[in-house]
Amino acid sequence: MSGRFLLRVRVSPSASRVAVGGKWEGPSGEARLIVRVGAPPEKGKANKAAAEALAEAFGLPKSAVRVTAGETDRLKTFALDGDPEALAARLAVLLEGEHGDR
């Protein structure tokens, strides 16, 4: 079954390596997936790189991942098009570790 899965992330632009994984907890206790990208936070470059990294980490085509909130903030929400159950299972794995170094 295909649907829309909303994913809350914390993006670290200009990182030394690209990686998706680990959990960031905000002051209010909210948990977000950590996404590190090498692109700078200018003209949407980091957003595009984050979407590409998420697509790879979740095994989705790039067209299935898009920013829906937080375009100019480190804290973002992405919409992923795919099987919500499979995406939730993959998220659980990614929150525990990293997928990256590409």
In short:
With 102 residues, this protein is of the alpha+beta class. The protein has helices at residues 45-58, 84-96; strands at residues 3-12, 19-25, 31-36, 65-69, 75-82, 98-100. It has a 6-stranded mixed β-sheet, covered by helices on one side.
Give structural notes.
With 102 residues, the protein is α+β, with helices and mostly antiparallel strands. The protein has a single domain (3-97), classed as 2-Layer Sandwich (Conserved Hypothetical Protein Mth637, Chain: A). The chain contains two helices and six strands. The relative contact order is 0.29.
Topology:
Blueprint: E1 3-12, E2 19-25, E3 31-36, H1 45-58, E4 65-69, E5 75-82, H2 84-96, E6 98-100
Parallel strand pairs: 1-3
Antiparallel strand pairs: 1-5, 2-3, 2-6, 4-5
